[in-house]
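TA notes, week 10

Several of you asked for a full example with nothing omitted. So below is the full record: structure tokens for the whole chain, then the designed sequence directly under it. When grading your own attempts, check the secondary structure regions first.
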């Protein structure tokens, strides 16, 4: 009987680990590093309807408009890196450049296994780090991004 090195199972049986990922903000063209990405969610609103001569005394439910949340990106603060502040400061009279944001879940070889593409994304909120003289932590910023649609692709 041949020994099993686990390579077959790693392709079909095990769930994907979530700690290795990359984020690409379209116009900047480079992969950025983040500590955490959250808020990748979508839902379909429910429309309830009952016509007047229905003999059932409850409404039927139909799919309505799709709705997405806001994506939240968390990362450490780096010296002389103001890219997000520059992007955020362009919110004036709805003239902010919208971007395509791509989040890729990577395997142990650095290849994309799953990908989320957020279209027409723009920054809606930046939360600066809290400052504490007694803490021994890295300074962290949080960027919240609104987007219109999300496509998910499993490679």
């Amino acid at each position: 009987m041949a020994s099993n090195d686990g390579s077959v199972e790693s392709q079909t049986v095990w769930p994907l680990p979530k700690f290795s990922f990359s984020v690409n903000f379209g116009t900047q063209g480079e992969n950025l590093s983040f500590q955490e990405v959250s808020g990748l969610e979508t839902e379909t609103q429910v429309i309830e309807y009952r016509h007047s001569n229905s003999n059932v005394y409850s409404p039927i439910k139909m799919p309505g408009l799709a709705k997405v949340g806001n994506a939240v990106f968390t990362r450490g603060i780096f010296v002389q890196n103001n890219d997000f502040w520059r992007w955020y400061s362009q919110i004036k009279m709805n003239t902010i450049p919208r971007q395509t944001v791509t989040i890729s879940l990577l395997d142990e070889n650095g290849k994309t296994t799953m990908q989320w593409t957020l279209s027409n994304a723009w920054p809606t909120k930046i939360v600066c780090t809290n400052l504490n003289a007694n803490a021994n932590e890295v300074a962290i910023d949080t960027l919240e991004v609104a987007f219109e649609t999300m496509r998910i692709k499993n490679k």
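The helical segments are 7-12, 83-88. Use that as a sanity check on your answer.
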